[in-house]
Write a structure and sequence with these properties.
12 strands; single chain; elongated; 2 domains; two-stranded antiparallel ribbon; Alpha-Beta Plaits; 8-stranded mixed beta sheet
Length: 252
């Protein structure tokens, strides 16, 4: 006979909080699992009254959404907490930010007022710095990419080698010139739709290699600046892709 999980007297969830946090500096190399461990320690240290699951191994009710790849910095990572008391979101933000190591920075906390948060994360804004690549080289490669209907790339996944289109999800590729303090170091800003399988910045770089033989001599520096609803931005003339704040509906 299969063992039944014990029924425990677990305090109910009375509030849910959504957090936006950043991975900066050396902490960009931390994995999602690394952050999970750090966050759970910070929650215990600060005394946040977490709601727990039932079962043989109760665990805090925390959900993570669309984490950035290990090795990339980010200003827009999201996590949701279930708590057993009504808390002040700003007080939670300050307490967790102080308890987490520098480089894992809690930027925003709001009370959950709406559902389907994952559905709002339609696209990401990526900022790529490419040391050793000139602005002219990058402009030629990006023009070739945008002129293509599709560019198939390959990536090793848990299910084996996957082949997929890295061009279609690119809603915007904007050249940012070169960094003044490094020569050359071209800058590329991307808006990439979230699809399955996910198209990451390294997939776009693989597409640039295929269409224009662009191979950065050193690894690029990649930062996710935002993720959220994808809209048309007409503020600067012709409509372009833009990403808005996914927490806006929860701010009331």
């Amino acid at each position: 006979m299969a063992r039944q999980a014990p029924v425990r007297d677990v305090a109910p969830t009375v509030q849910r909080l959504r957090l936006r946090y950043a991975k900066r500096g050396r902490l960009r190399f931390s994995s999602t699992r690394d952050f999970q461990r750090a966050l759970e320690r910070a929650l215990r240290r600060t005394g946040v009254p977490m709601a727990y699951s039932q079962g043989f191994n109760p665990h805090p009710r925390i959900s993570y959404t669309n984490a950035a790849p290990t090795g990339t910095a980010s200003e827009a990572e999201y996590v949701e907490l279930a708590v057993t008391q009504v808390l002040d979101p700003e007080a939670v933000r300050k307490a967790l930010d102080e308890a987490l190591p520098p480089g894992l920075d809690v930027l925003d906390v709001v009370e959950v007022r709406t559902g389907d948060f994952a559905d709002r994360l339609e696209a990401s804004v990526w900022h790529l710095e490419l040391p050793g690549v000139s602005a002219d080289e990058l402009a030629t490669a990006v023009a070739a990419l945008l002129a293509a209907d599709s560019v198939e790339v390959q990536r090793l996944t848990k299910s084996g080698i996957r082949t997929f289109d890295a061009r279609g999800p690119v809603a915007l590729a904007d050249l940012g010139g070169e960094r003044a303090d490094e020569a050359p170091c071209a800058i590329l800003d991307l808006v990439v739709r979230h699809v399955t399988p996910a198209v990451r910045p390294d997939d776009v770089l693989a597409a640039l290699r295929l269409v224009a033989d662009l191979v950065p001599p050193v690894p690029p520096r990649v930062t996710r600046l935002a993720q959220g609803p994808l809209v048309a931005d007409v503020s600067a003339g012709p409509a372009t892709a833009a990403v808005t704040d996914p927490l806006a509906p929860d701010r009331g």
